[in-house]
Amino acid sequence: MGIHEGFMKEALKEAKKGLKAGEVPVGAVVVSPEGEILGRGHNCPISGSDPTGHAEIVALREASRRVGNYRLPGTTLYVTVEPCPMCAGAIVHARVGTVVFGTRDEKGGGLVSLYTIGTDGKLNHRVGVVEGILRDECRRLLQDFFREKRMD
Fold first, then answer.
1. Is 137 a residue of the active site?
2. Tens digit of pLDDT for each residue in 39-94?
3. Closest Cα partner for 88 from 116, 114, 61?
4. Which of 23, 56, 62, 82 is an active site residue?
5. How confident is the model at residue 17 (pLDDT cuts 50, 70, 90)?
6. 94: closest CA among 142, 139, 43, 28?
7. How is 112-132 classified by DSSP, letter by letter?
8. Distances, alpha carbon 117 to alpha carbons 48, 63, 102, in Å
């Protein structure tokens, strides 16, 4: 197993925490250039009554508090699903170096699928992207969640 897979497994653990809480199962971890997990998060907009309670935002907030700076240059954000436009904007503002995600969000992706925030060179910071890490597991978690929701 490569380094990306190991950190994506940590993001999947976070997604499963959100799933247990009845949230859309998305998980994220922020990793320092030295390979230390600085922040973790899972979706919590419902339980937190917070529209910004996305996994990426939660993980970025924790990482920023931990390092004492809202800028996180050189970090890598691992997230199970492609970030939405709101999260992509936060990633740019935090100066995250690379985003590694499991599966695309064809209907709402903010980095490559629907929008290209931070990846098209139009902003003052460019984010590197690696996609498809543990894609099947990340996709299956979401598909199972929504399949079950439709049955309710």
1. no
2. 999 999 999 999 999 999 999 999 999 999 999 999 999 999 999 999 999 999 99
3. 116
4. 56
5. very high
6. 28
7. TTS--TTTSS-SSS--EEEE-
8. 26, 21, 18
